[in-house]
Every structure is written in C-alpha cells, then in structure tokens.
Amino acid sequence: MGEFELIRRHFQHATDPGNAVVLGIGDDCALLQPSPGHQLAVSSDMLVEGRHFFPDVDPEALGHKALAVNLSDLAAMGARPLGFTLALALPRADIDWLAAFARGLFGLADAHACPLVGGDTTRGPLNLCITVFGEVKPGQALRRDAARAGDDLYISGRTGEARLTLEHLRGTDWAMAPLSDETRARLERPTPRNALGILLASAGAHAAIDLSDGLAGDLGHILSASGVGAEIDLFALPVAPALQALPVAQRWECLLAGGDDYELLFTAPPAAREAIATAATSSRTPVTRIGRITAEPGRLRLLDANGLPLALSLRSFDHFAT
Amino acid sequence: MGEFELIRRHFQHATDPGNAVVLGIGDDCALLQPSPGHQLAVSSDMLVEGRHFFPDVDPEALGHKALAVNLSDLAAMGARPLGFTLALALPRADIDWLAAFARGLFGLADAHACPLVGGDTTRGPLNLCITVFGEVKPGQALRRDAARAGDDLYISGRTGEARLTLEHLRGTDWAMAPLSDETRARLERPTPRNALGILLASAGAHAAIDLSDGLAGDLGHILSASGVGAEIDLFALPVAPALQALPVAQRWECLLAGGDDYELLFTAPPAAREAIATAATSSRTPVTRIGRITAEPGRLRLLDANGLPLALSLRSFDHFAT
C-alpha cells in the first residue's frame, strides 16, 4: 500500500468543519477563512517516541494526546480552534496502529469541531508533529506579557497527577501505590481547557499559559515576559486525592514542577472575579485562585498557610537537560 | 544548555515580519493578522534523515530546502507567504550544525519576507517539520480541481536535474558524469516559485501543483481532482544540458518522474496566454507551454514530435513503496 493510500484510508475523516474550512486535505495547501477581522493563532508541537511517550503507548491515547497538547496552546491564548495539520513519520505501515491512533485523534478533534485539514506521512522513526490554527478577536488574546501587578493568579483543575503517573510507570519507589483510571488519564488522555480559555478571553483575563513543564516553571515564563513577580499560596493549591498520601517533598514536586498538566494558569484583575467565576461555571471547569501578581520582576514567592515564604527546590522539565 | 536557550540563540532571527505578524516566537501561540477578507493557505511537510536527505547533508542546504519545499506548496496555491513554524527533533545540541542550519533557513525566509513565528525543539532522531502560512484572495487559489478541458498546460523552469544529482550521489552508473554546481543546487537548494505563483493567481490560471514526486505523477493528481485528461508534447519539455547526454530511457525518467523538482505545473485557458507570459516575465521565471488538458478523465497521453503517442513506463516516488 502506498503513502497516499495510507493517508486516504485513515485520515480522511469527516469532522464537521464548521464554516472556516474552504478546502481540506488533498491539495498543495488547505484553505481556511477566519471570521472577519479576527487574528489567527498558530502553534506547533512535536512528539517523539521515548521522550514524550513510551514505545508501547496505546496508540489511541497517543492520538488523543498529540492533538490535546496542541489544543491546549490555543486554549492558553483564548483562541477558538479552526483546524490542524498532522505530519507523521512511521517506522512501518501498521494498519491496526493507525486505526487506533486515528480513533483517538478524531475523537478529540470532533469534540472540539477542529478538523484535520492537511499533513504529511513519511517513513522514519516514530514522530508526530501537529500544528493547530485558531482565531481570536484582536486585543483579546491571553498573552504571557499581559500580567499586571495586583492581578489575581488562577489555575484550572489541579496539577501533579500526570507526573505521579509517569513516576509510577517508571517504577519510582515513592509512586508505586495503585493508581485510579482517572489519575492515569491525566497523563495519557489530558483534557485541554478550550471552552474555559475562549470565555476567559472575553471575561477580561490578562495573561495565560498552559502548564506543560510544571506550574512554577511555566509561571516563570509569565513573570519574565510581563516583568512582574508572583506569590503562590501553597495551601490554596487543589490537591488530588492520589497526591495526599505522598511524602511532602514529592507532593510539592508533583504540584509545582510536575509537567504534562495541560491546565491553564492565568491572571485577571480583581474586578474580573465575578466574570472569571462565570467563565468557570459556563465551561464546567474548576478554577481556583492560588495567589497574586506582584511588582518585583521575576520574584516568585511560595507562601505557607501563615503567609510565610517557604524555600522549595524545584526543577522544570527540560528535554535537553542532562 | 537548556532547550529554551537553544531556541533563543539560533531561532530568534529578525526576519522583517511585514504587517501580518502580531506576535512571534515566545508565547503559547503566534498571532497573525491576514489581510482583510483573504483566505489562509496552510501546508505541513516533514523531512526525515535517510529518506529526504543523507545523514551527511550540509546543514545550511538542509535549512534552505526544508523551508523551500514548504514555500513551494504556497506557490502552487498562488498564496503570499506570511510566516512559518519549525518543529525540530535533534539527536544532540550541536551548535555548529544549528548555526549553519539557521543560516540556510533564514537566508530563504528573508528572501521571501516569511518570518519564523513559532515552533518546538526536542531531542530525538533528526526530523524537521515545517508548517507555512500564506494568504490568497477568495476565488484566486490555484486548486488541483480547477483544470478544464481545453486549458493549456505549462511548466516553470525545467525538471530532472534533482533526480540526476540524487542518482549521482547514490553512485548509479548512468549518472556518474561530473555535475555542475548549478545542477547539484537543483537537489540541494531548490528555488520555490512564489513570485510566479502569486502572479498566476491574478493572471487567470486555473489549476496548479508543485512538482515534488515527478511531472507525470503530479499531473495525475490534477487530472484526478479535476476529472480531466492531458497530453504532454514530450519534445516541448525543456531539457537541461546535464540531461542531454543521458541514455534516452533515463532522460525520460528524470524529466517525467524525477521528483524533488519544486517547479510549478499549471493550467490556464488559451485566452490567458498573454497574461501568463507577463507573469513569467515579471517574476523572471522561465515558463514553457508543454501540452493541453483534454476531456477524457484520467487519461494522460505522451506525444512525440509528430503528435503520436509514446508508451513510457514511469514510476512516481513513494515513501512507502517497497
């Protein structure tokens, strides 16, 4: 079976394209028509075997996750998904694998009305590269450089379960208690927060980022881009039941430097508290206020229940760290 | 050195962004503002070591080619480049390699005012995935399904030198004559035909495709999408000096099924001949009329100098062919 036949069989799936897709798969380019006056948001992520997923990963979960991490970038800008491209290097043409991968991919694509509009398939070591396109009204994008001193700091959902699951799968001693399916799903099938992100953009939120490298490290990107500092009220952080039994050092590590959370970390002025609460309710997404933005550039303080600073040593995940 | 530092050092290059880039590298998404009312053209290509380039490839040539093959897709739609994303898996952080790669990449990006707006870098077997964005006026995109019986068939530049160079590098016996730098450059540093493509879109051209898999095979995609047939006047095909000394079978193979040409194959009604000639002159791109579109769906006839059909056996390049 040839390359083109592979693509046709498994990737010509009829996600409802909405009005934005003028021309989908099968030409030199896809053609999209964004809503009048809107800006286009684009992001690319590449997933590599052995680094972003285990060689024996369930292909259906992989299809879901590959798109989820990209949709999460749109969510963090407050952009509405329009479509995506998929470039795929495969060591062999394994039909069962492709069918399961496509199921996971299109399950999530359908749920977000985000159609596959083009891509590429080639032979090579397993590698997935997805680029997503979304749209957002001018001035409403949730940029990293938009945090202001005095803003509240919020998080959607909760952090740490993906990291706990990863350590469990690696056989790390402190992570060997049995995990629920719900906890495992946080690593294997993350839920991008697009409905929330879109509502935040019109609710007056300022800055946002999606949590891929860990709460503290990703917050650092906002602080650096905005030239501000922050305080996190550690005891305001929502803690999943699976994390409550962990040794305290590992619990903080998971919560603050876990990685792979795909939750939104965002800021908004106190005047927007009611609008933020409405956005959370309307999108059925739990949102917790966990701290505030301060004026000191780059200074992150972690406060205990008495408002006193704690010194924690944390390391953000880095693909090139040795 | 960490992942983010790598990206910052080598990929924060100041290509003049024009007016379209609202927000470039460094946030969850880039933000683009297409011209009012325009459609967005997008395309992704993935290049893998050992399949699309040799392991010892000159990294500067590779940087050029990775973007060139994507720009060529925009050219084939008649779309003006707005920007691109790059996702890169690297086996190690080799600074000299990255610097040379970036030189080749940004040399071409600058020439097309097509800035890098985002991307991803990770450790893994060498893999490059570029997604390009362009804009085109509604109704002007050069779609594969737009060829009409009676259209003239044109090609830009000439085909076959990339294939000859590939066979030369592979040590194939019929390809061992010394090659000029100009011939080698057709494989290693192809020239995407964007200026021509943009002018063709407003000159009334109908269908277009860029030649990546070989003239005959890529023409087949137009015939199939448009439900038409075609005749190629073989003796009208421009033949590079390097191909003139080849055995006749290999010459046809290079010309008609060479692959990696990145020329435009397009159709236009005879009434547009003057406009097409003007587009060729204005873009300083050689254009040759090589045949015509016929009414018989899917039928491709190759005609000799006397207008008589020739039977040639040709095979299009396929990454999954065994």
From TrEMBL, chains A, B:
EC number in record: 2.7.4.16
Residues that, per the record, bind Mg(2+) 3: 28, 73, 210
CDD domains: ThiL
Coiled-coil regions listed in the entry: none
All copies of domain PurM-like N-terminal, residue ranges: 26-136
Binding site for substrate: 52, 260, 317
Entry keyword set: ATP-binding, Kinase, Magnesium, Metal-binding, Nucleotide-binding, Thiamine biosynthesis, Transferase
Pathway stated in the Swiss-Prot or TrEMBL entry: Cofactor biosynthesis; thiamine diphosphate biosynthesis; thiamine diphosphate from thiamine phosphate: step 1/1
Residues at which Mg(2+) 2 binds: 45, 73
Binding-site residues, Mg(2+) 4: 28, 43, 73
InterPro entries: PurM-like_C_dom (IPR010918), PurM-like_C_sf (IPR036676), PurM-like_N (IPR016188), PurM-like_N_sf (IPR036921), ThiL-like (IPR006283)
Catalytic activity: thiamine phosphate + ATP = thiamine diphosphate + ADP
Enzyme class: transferase
UniProt: Mg(2+) 5 binding residues: 213
Protein name (record): Thiamine-monophosphate kinase
Organism: Hydrogenophaga laconesensis
Gene coding for it: thiL
